[in-house]
Design brief:
The chain is of the alpha/beta class. It has helices at residues 39-46, 94-97, 138-157, 173-184, 197-205, 218-225, 241-249, 271-275, 293-301, 319-330, and strands at 2-6, 14-17, 27-37, 56-57, 61-69, 81-84, 87-88, 108-109, 121-125, 129-131, 165-169, 189-194, 209-212, 231-236, 251-259, 281-284, 313-315, 338-340.
């Protein structure tokens, strides 16, 4: 089968012919119908986040159709539309038992620690395979597996409550979902911060108040809009020290900043004025949970979560097209999300 793989850190991905994956008694083989290209994949290619072993088929936002299952699998079957939880976990360790499987002691992420969805087929344990409602496209189902799920988990981690205010720093693929999910969670105002006018316009169409960071310090703009109060919750989805600190500085008293973007530089904070003096919190947000996915799939199937704009740009399983998309992501440009449709 064909797969686009990371062969060497810092080098373009390559289209290669590889053997189809084999499945065990509790596994499922899925024909890939859509695989989203995440900014994290650009980080993996660049070596900002460890990947291995190489060569590695990237791609952790995946949906498709079940091709075959092992003899012990009963929850899903051949021909079924599915999307894939990108964490492969044991289900029995201390962390899995406590409902925090992203810290599983033997856990692996598809497209990072084991082969992912930039391929014609992917195999993984059936417990990570989730039925995809007919009302949700393969493209939207793939994007939902990371963009939406990671944003949803971050909003849960920051304990957003109805009636609170939110600032979303970076309204690309994750941010488009974060804005909508914050509104669906009861936020009375959502401020969308970005440099890209098209992305700001898209966020405004979802009900956000656009904050154009080209015009001034977005913290000052949010301060003016809130009468100097700040916001209760901020999400940083970019991974830059500047925007991470802005997410902290934009907080109201006892506000919570959720850091999601992958950064390769440290964050510096004025501890007294930016943390202690306001009892602010900085919260790391890692991945998402399997039990969060049904809620998101329900929202998408009812049209409450609109992923049409996020999943509209598609490309074939082609190394040049994928590398060009990753190049754009490294420059924080391009489509909200690009989806491979093999």
């Amino acid at each position: 089968m064909k797969a686009v793989q990371l062969v060497e850190i810092g080098m373009p991905l390559q289209l290669r012919e590889v053997p189809p994956p084999e499945i065990g008694p509790q596994d499922a083989l899925v024909r890939v119908k859509a695989a989203g290209i995440c900014h994290s994949d650009a980080h993996y290619r660049a070596g900002k986040s460890p990947v291995g072993p190489l060569p590695q088929t990237l791609g952790h936002e995946v949906s498709g159709v079940v091709e075959a299952v092992g003899p012990d699998v009963t929850a899903v079957g051949p021909g079924q539309r599915v999307c894939l939880h990108y964490l492969v976990t044991c289900g029995s360790c201390e962390h899995c038992a406590a409902g925090r499987e992203q810290f599983c002691t033997t856990g692996q992420m598809i497209g990072k620690h084991r082969d992912g969805g930039y391929a014609e087929y992917i195999a993984l344990p059936a417990r990570s395979v989730v039925p995809l409602p007919d009302a949700v496209s393969f493209e939207a189902g793939a994007v939902l597996m990371c963009s939406s799920a990671t944003s949803f988990h971050a909003l849960r981690q920051t304990r957003l409550k109805p009636g609170e205010t939110v600032a979303v720093f970076g309204v690309g693929g994750l941010g488009a979902s974060a804005v909508q999910l914050a509104r669906l969670s009861g936020a009375v105002q959502v401020y969308a911060v970005d440099l890209n006018p098209e992305r700001l316009a898209q966020a405004e169409s979802y009900g956000a108040i656009p904050v154009d960071a080209r015009l001034a310090d977005p913290v000052d703009l949010i301060g003016e809009a809130t009468g100097g109060r700040g916001v209760d919750v901020s999400l940083e989805l970019i991974g830059l020290p500047l925007t991470m600190r802005q997410a902290v500085r934009a907080l109201a008293v006892q506000g919570r900043a959720g850091l999601v973007g992958i950064a390769d530089q440290p964050l510096e904070i004025e501890t007294y004025t930016e943390l202690l003096g306001t009892e602010a919190e900085v919260i790391g947000c890692a991945d998402h949970l399997l039990d969060e996915l049904p809620t998101l799939l329900d929202l998408a199937s009812r049209g409450a979560l609109d992923l049409s704009a996020v999943s509209a740009t598609t490309i074939p399983l082609d190394a040049d097209a994928i590398n060009a998309t990753l190049d754009n992501l490294e420059k924080f440009s391009g489509a909200l999300r690009t989806v491979i449709t093999p």
